[in-house]
Amino acid sequence: MAKTSVSSPKNVERAEYFAPGHRACQGCAEALAVRLVLKALGKDTIVAMATGCMEIISSPLPLTSWRVPWIHNAFENPAAVISGCEAGMKAMMRKGKLPAKKINFVGMGGDGATADIGFGPLSGALERGHDMIYICYDNEAYMNTGIQRSSSTPYGASTTTSPAGKKSIGQHTQKKNMVEICAAHGIPYVATACPSFPFDLLEKVKKASETPGPAYIHILSVCPTGWRIQPADAIKYGRLAVNSCVFPLYEVVDGKHRLTYKPSEKKLIPVSEYLGGQGRFRHLTDKDIEQIQAATTRIYERLLRLSEQE
Amino acid sequence: MGKVRKGVEVSIAIADAVAQADVDVIAAYPITPQTHIVEHLSEIVANGELDAEFVPVDSEHSAMSVCCGSAAVGARTFTSTSSQGLALMSEIFFIAAAMRLPMVMALANRSLSSPLSIWNDHSDVMMVRDAGWICIFVENGQETYDNIFCAFRMSENPEVMLPVAVNLDGFILTHMIEPVEYEDDELIRKYLPAFKMKNALHPDNPVSMGCFGMPEIYTETQMNREVGVRNSYPHILKAWEEWARLTGRQYRPIETYRADDAEYCIVTMGSYGETAMEVVDALRDEGEKVGVVKIRLWRPFPLDEFRSAVLGKRHLVVVDRAITFGGQGGPVATDLRSALYKKDGAPTIVNYVAGLAGRDVSRKDFRNIILEGKKKAEAGDTEGFTLYGLRG
Amino acid sequence: MAKPMDQITWQELEIGAVVVEVGNSTQYETGSWRSERPVVEKEKCIKCMFCWLYCPEGCIHEAEEGHFEADLTYCKGCGICAAECPVKCITMIGEEK
Questions:
Q1: Among A45, A90, B148, C64, which residue's Cβ finds the most Cβ atoms within 10 Å?
Q2: Which residue, among B92, B93, B96, B126, has the nearest Cα to B111 in the 3D structure?
Q3: Shortest alpha-carbon distance between residue B226 and chain C (Å)
């Protein structure tokens, strides 16, 4: 594990910027991810959020769980909205209309908002070079509206619009690689994270905050409801995803790839152990799982090479 | 910049006005016929003449989204678009008004596809008629320049807090060189106070904007909006009165020309008003007791001013620049018929749709519309609309 | 303190329906959702704070003597704290109906 400045819960920020009373499902690791992200960012943060699980569960009029300034505008545009907040504040501070202050400008969206409907606006915001962070909370489907597939749904997963059936394996396309797409925009910081590895996540959010220019963080957000697992296993499955190399933890700093966690021989597990307990993969045959294992290994080994070469 | 009168392309005058207004953020995507506005603005910013963030967005949808973010932090915000661009951003256009985010748009009216057309009509703004923006129509370069400032003043007023669209006819105004009197910077500074937004997003005062509404509460949010739009009315008038006090140029929600003693009137919105006035002069010389009623404030609709201008007249010939397909004709005539429903002294309304996608409507055409319209009204032929100049 | 949703009048809403009361979701007591609740064996607890760290509700707080316990007003009974406790000193027990 790459060294992190915080490695014990005792040294994690105590302040809660995401108030309880939100309506997330029991065991929602995405809500946990939001809670941890805000601890790393602190109170001088403005959040623009997409329509989706987190927006709905945290903002039923007249209540809000947000203890930082927050705006929800539409589904596909948090990257554009937050770049507007950044541009507006930048201009006003430069012109002396507001006192200068370092503020984190953070766009947040699910995998649907990021990889599908919000793909264009995200690309535009990253290309324009705003001093902002975009965080994708990836629970691998359009969970809020009933578990429909997104381009981030992994191969073989059964969703309500890519159901497994006699003539279908479920999702028959590979997960769109938003991490590499964002890295290809040439932005200074890109990373993957998972709340099951909380110190790695906190470190990466902090790094993104301190990096001038655009940063992108892709957080695997285990969804017990949509993945058909027990709520209590939400953290466990994040660990399995990482230790099976299905979701590698890495960063791309100024174009250089670096794995921040490499599962040791003892920790490394076959993908079958990750896929096996999830209802959304229940229909997969041994052959399907072998295929997934081969693809996973190939992608991880490429990352290892990049990490060592660059 | 001191007070100076110059011949200038109206698009350039708009950009210069935006600069004088000390805008903080400009987010716009190029689309014919608005391009000169954004090109000149980016030039002004690049030369350091205006200290602002020019955000070269990836689409109109992102343009309006960036504007919402910028307005939400209390920055003075400007954008411009037309036609397909307005259509693409329409999702967020509605949201901007619903979230009460102040900003100004120069809407260079252009017809909607399909077929693709870059030329002028009002189908674009009519598409967003119900969005809750304040909509002003201008007829010439001076009015355009002036109303940019009036629009910011109205929009950012804490009693208003609504986005404002200044509608100008694409090409007919955007690309025309007109005489415009520029006011000096000191006057503009006096007229436009700094924008101070009550609950702007800032870590010192965390608020949540855009929470979602269950059925139990959504209705109440809409009434709050509707009242907000209606209550903006006196502030719109005050903004125009104050401008008149400083510059001598008075704008009103309904403006009339030789209508007081007219028996019947032609109703226009936008640049057609100028041509109509010339034609009315000629017709008056021939003994026609005709006048012009010009709608300057489209939304919120100035019901009282409109009624007092037209009640007691025999006929109105309403010239629309868009069709509401499968409806009663043009959107303006439909609104006006509704405004006069069951009112004593309500004139008959005859509806013409003319000048779609920039087809020229000459003085001769206006003369035909007025006289034929009058004949139709007298014959009781008032159903639907006539598409003027249609071949076939 | 926000009024219940179905009692708010249109006049009481802020412009743009902005919510100015920070983090007032605490009025909504999600504790009523659960069918199990976590019980801590204090003698085994090593005060590592991982339960606090992993709680999606953020409702685990420091109690007396540096132990941590779930605020039952909000605890949804997901069982993550019990699953993640390194010394397995948290047990989920059924709520009596």
A1: B148
A2: B126
A3: 10
The whole-number pLDDT of residue B26 equals 98
Q: What is the pTM of this model?
A: 0.97
Residue located via tokens 């489209």: B298
| Average confidence (pLDDT) per 10 residues, chain C, 97 residues | 94 97 97 96 95 98 91 98 97 89
CB contact (8 A) between residue B208 and residue C19: yes
- Per residue in B333-349, pLDDT tens? 999 999 999 999 999 99
Residues from chain B that touch C11, judged by Cβ atoms under 8 A, are 224
In this prediction, residues B302-308 reach a mean pLDDT of 98
Q: Which of residues 272-301 of B touch C (CB under 8 A)?
A: none
CATH topology of domain B254-387: Rossmann fold (3.40.50)
Query: Would you list the domain boundaries of chain B?
Result: 4-247, 254-387
B14 vs B2 pLDDT, higher one = B14
Region class of B288: left (phi > 0), else alpha (psi between -120 and 50), else beta: beta
ipTM: 0.97
CATH 3.40.50.970 fits B4-247, yes or no: yes
Identity of the residue in B66, B72, B214 whose CB atom sits nearest the CB atom of A83: B66
pLDDT, position B264: 98
3-state secondary structure of C47: coil
* pLDDT value of position A144: 96
Mutate to test the interface with C, among A10, A18, A47, A63 (most CBs of C within 10 A): A63
A161 vs A158: CA distance, rounded Å: 8
Instruction: Kindly give the parts of chain A with pLDDT less than 50.
Output: none
Q: What is the CA radius of gyration of chain A?
A: 19
Q: Which of B83, B50, B86 is closest to B67 using CA atoms? A: B86
Cβ C50–A9 below 8 Å, yes or no? yes
Q: Which residues are CB-contacts of A46 (< 8 A; sequence separation ≥ 6)? A: A68, A69, A70, A71, A82, A85, A89, A103, A104, A105, A106, B73, B201, B202, B203
- Asked if A59's CB is within 8 angstroms of B59's CB, the reply is no
- For the stretch B84-113, pLDDT in tens is 999 999 999 999 999 999 999 999 999 999
* Cβ-based interface (< 8 Å): residues of C facing A: 2-3, 5, 8, 13, 17, 19, 21-30, 33-34, 48-50, 52-59, 71, 73-74, 76-80, 82-84, 92
Quote helix, strand, coil % in chain B, to nearest 5. Answer: 40, 20, 40
Helix (H, G, I), strand (E, B) or coil at A71: strand
Residue B119 has pLDDT above 80, yes or no: yes
- Asked if domains B4-247 and B254-387 share a fold, the reply is yes
Residue B155 CA to residue B54 CA, distance in Å, equals 20
DSSP code, position B183: P
- Reply yes or no on whether the pLDDT at B2 is more than 90: no
Count of Cβ atoms closer than 10 Å to residue B15 Cβ: 28
Q: For B36-46, write each residue's pLDDT tens digit.
A: 999 999 999 99
Contacts of B60 in chain A (CB under 8 A): none
The nearest alpha carbon in chain C to A65 belongs to C23
